[in-house]
Amino acid sequence: MSDEPPLSASLSRMIADHLTRIYPDLDADILASHVIDAFWPDDTSRRRRARRPGNSMWSQRDALLITYGNSLIDGVHKPLDLLNDFLRRDMRGVVNGVHILPFFPYTSDDGFAVSDFERVDPQLGDWPDINRIAGAFQLMSDLVLNHVSSQGAWFNAYRQRQDPFDQFFFEASPDDDLSDVVRPRTTPLLQEVDTSDGPRHVWCTFSHDQIDLDFRNPRVLMEFLRIIRLHLDNGVRIIRLDAVAFLWKEVGSPSIHLPQTHEIVKLMRTLANFATEPMILVTETNVPKAENLSYFGARDEAHVIYNFPLPPLVLQALLSGSAAHLNKWQRGMPPAPLGCAYLNFTASHDGIGMRPAEGTIPAEDQARVIETVKRSGGLVSMRTLPDGSEAPYEINCTYFEALKETHDGPDDHHIARFLCSQTIAMSLEGIPAFYIHSLLATPNDHEGVARRGMNRAINRHRWNYDDLRARLESDTPQRTVLNALRNRLRVRRKQAAFHPNATQFTPKLGDDRVFGVWRQSIDRQQSVFALHNVSSDSVTLPADVLNLIEDETWVDLLSNEPVAEGEITLAPYQCRWISNGGH
């Protein structure tokens, strides 16, 4: 007979090992049974063996659209129905996944102050509307697990000191030493609230409407495992762990990236490995490079991490006309471990984060980027440093408008420059993701900022769907950009060399006006040299800077033009995918 323990014993032991490291003073075996009951209620089926790390959970055919549930409105139809129409009409064969930002009832921060984790916001639609989208596209949802709305049922029960919610929120004293706490905002960390037991001070990493939960209480963890199960049962296959870096707090510490936070992500990865559904974990950690990469763990934490340095680096390259910083950073980036991948993006619902630029873009170059984007109508949000001073946290601007002009001023290359930025994201190792307002070349929404009193509203426009459809059928930037990006994505998804884990190398091209990477398919049959002119100059490179294998025909996949021997020329902001195979 085999000495292999039965599934339940083996899985329980793995879960208990995680819990011992998270809650060393509690009975890990009892907690493990609670975890299994929360994630697999009523004997929900699970795998007999854990998934092994590999490259089969994604391919070059994968690309994501990022959108709010109400980015498209018309005052008549449910916004989720309009989104479904846009996806089926405009995105089929272009992207195969969609990240719908928090679609639950909320009170602020456009969904990230959740008041009810179990319902779909009735202003958007209902679970059947989510199910329809999940039936046609791989659906990514947000697990907003660091905090909840101050006006939701959980926090109202806390203020009434009702069990179990009276122990759900992190409290601290104004007398505590909180000087080392890493903050993404300038608002006070602690907020005094009235409860039936008198005043309490609760921890608010982000805003006073977003009250931080206390994961030192395992019942909080169990609630979120039940919420993940709800998502999976409704067709979600990618779980985004929002603001996960701040999850575990300790007075007297920075309260970011603490060991218990990483162990909770590892526990979720173990559950994903045994889930019958193909569940992918994505960590959202808008922090410098080394801290961000730490969420891969030893191939036992996130499947996917956001490539957060990419947006400011690409922006700086295109505004300055030099990819020097981008090239240096990319050469120092490790390949994602087996079973892991990067999520490459340039724009999201938030601003263009400047923290990831630390150590990659010198302060004077960051300042020049901010100055140029301000000329294009952009805004800047600040964060508080431990010494009480402030530093730029993010640039608030649509990515399309951020590239309106360069450091040298306006020119005639706005759309070409923007298309170059998005093509870079398509070319790199990883899975590309595109914010809906990038695909639609959305201008800055200054009226939204004035109306809502929030910088981030500049990049969260809500298109009237009828107006958008009219723009997509006439000669507008919206039509030009969407058609160009769709064409490039259709080409990309056919190239094995663009598999998220295909080999990548950053060659030294001898001219920093060009950013280039070499991609080779996992079976080594296809190579693509992806070249991107980040300047307004016409640039000519000697062909011998590329390793073009002799006796093979090399073609630019984007123009279908054969590549002649001798020299390779790129027009201002032109991108070329030079390949020995593919379509």
UniProtKB/TrEMBL annotation:
A Pfam family recorded for this sequence: Alpha-amylase
GO biological process: carbohydrate metabolic process
Record: residues binding substrate: 109, 147, 240-242, 349-350, 456
Keyword Glycosyltransferase: yes
CDD domains assigned: AmyAc_Sucrose_phosphorylase-like_1
Span of domain Glycosyl hydrolase family 13 catalytic: 62-492
Keywords for this protein: Glycosyltransferase, Transferase
GO molecular function list: glycosyltransferase activity
UniProt keyword Transferase present: yes
The name this protein goes by in its record: Alpha-amylase
